[in-house]
Write a structure and sequence with these properties.
The protein has two helices and 28 strands. The chain is mostly beta strands. The protein has one domain: Neuraminidase (6 Propeller). The longest helix is centred in the N-terminal third of the chain and has 16 residues. It comes from Algoriphagus aquimarinus. This is 6-bladed beta-propeller.
Length: 331
């Protein structure tokens, strides 16, 4: 009787948290970082990186996968920084030049999970030695450690279908445990969308497939808890769904980047105050660091830490050095 009541209450709570967020196309000239973040720290790197693709936060270090000009802005390596932002050196580079898809971190084993297109590499960050690597038959876009399991999101093609997936792996053996979610579509062309993984409290969230929706681990990723409405002003996506990125929950915000009418936008929705922050991204619009007076910065991306996102700033692509910005999002 008691367990039945708890179960009913649990599913009722999940139902009550499901909501549609209607995007109002009222654009701010800029979104100040003070509107979404309690703290913004930054550090300058002198290395010749074009961008920072991924950033992992640990107790003592940061790990980054930097984009380089010789790999056309994509990353094939991992570098280590101390907590002051000092560059400590490169700890991994793909011997074949294979591009890195994402980074995840397992604190219990002090190991970094480095994902390539169809390969997972387990790296000990104390010895900088590869522990294990496995090839898989699916393409990887995002990874995250959650409750001692490795979640892997990505996509695959058959002759007539495009399939987005969320798989669970053992983080030590790198063996597949189960496929947690699949979204299948008729294959139109071989363009794909990067999935997003984020977390908050005791829940993991995934956004994947050809919909602007966020799913939660609380109900096994069955029903969307957040649906972004009116992103395209109730018109067809026309392929723009491929550009919906960094879509998830962080702090007290639901957030997404998206493309509409050939422009790119950044969007934050305060779930407590029911207030949106929307701006076109560009040289003179988008996210603006008013806390440190750095100016406009690139659209933030998720980190492995629930409450943090990161961004970068590079005024000229051909100049050496890059600024890394870490944002502690308001909760």
């Amino acid at each position: 009787m008691i367990s039945a009541f708890i179960s009913a209450f649990f599913f009722l709570s999940i139902f009550l948290t499901q909501q549609d967020i209607g995007v109002e196309h009222v654009y701010l000239d800029r979104i100040n970082t003070s509107s979404i973040a309690d703290q913004v720290i930054h550090f300058d790197l002198k290395e010749d990186f074009t961008n920072i693709q991924d950033l992992v936060i640990t107790q003592d270090f940061y790990f980054i996968s930097p984009g380089e000009e010789k790999s056309k802005g994509f990353s094939t390596s991992v570098s280590k920084l101390d907590k002051s932002g000092k560059y400590l050196g490169e700890i991994y580079r793909s011997e074949t030049g294979s591009l890195i898809s994402d980074l995840a971190y397992n604190p219990s084993t002090k190991s970094l999970i480095i994902s390539h297109n169809q390969k997972i590499v387990l790296l000990n960050v104390v010895t900088n030695k590869i522990i294990k690597e496995v090839e898989i038959d699916k393409r990887i876009t995002r990874t995250k450690i959650f409750k001692s399991k490795l979640y892997v999101a990505g996509f695959n093609y058959t002759d007539d279908s495009e399939i987005y997936y969320l798989d669970i792996y053992d983080p030590l053996s790198l063996k597949l445990i189960e496929t947690k979610k699949e979204m299948k579509y008729v294959l139109a062309d071989k363009a794909f969308r990067h999935s997003s993984l984020s977390s908050k409290g005791d829940e993991l969230f995934v956004s994947m497939g050809a919909v602007n929706e966020i799913y939660s681990s609380a109900d096994g990723f069955k029903k969307p808890i957040i649906t972004f409405k009116n992103i395209y002003k109730n018109k067809p996506s026309l392929g723009n769904i491929l550009f919906s990125s960094n879509q998830g929950l962080v702090g007290k915000f639901a957030t997404t980047g998206f493309k509409y009418l050939n422009n790119y936008y950044i969007y934050y929705y305060d779930l407590n105050a029911k207030k949106q922050y929307l701006s076109k991204t560009g040289e003179n619009s988008g996210l603006y660091d008013d806390i440190n007076n750095i100016g406009h910065i690139r659209n933030p991306r998720f980190t492995n830490a629930n409450e943090y996102m990161f961004s970068t700033k590079k005024d000229k692509l051909n100049e050496k050095g890059i600024t890394v910005i870490l944002l502690k999002i308001k909760s």
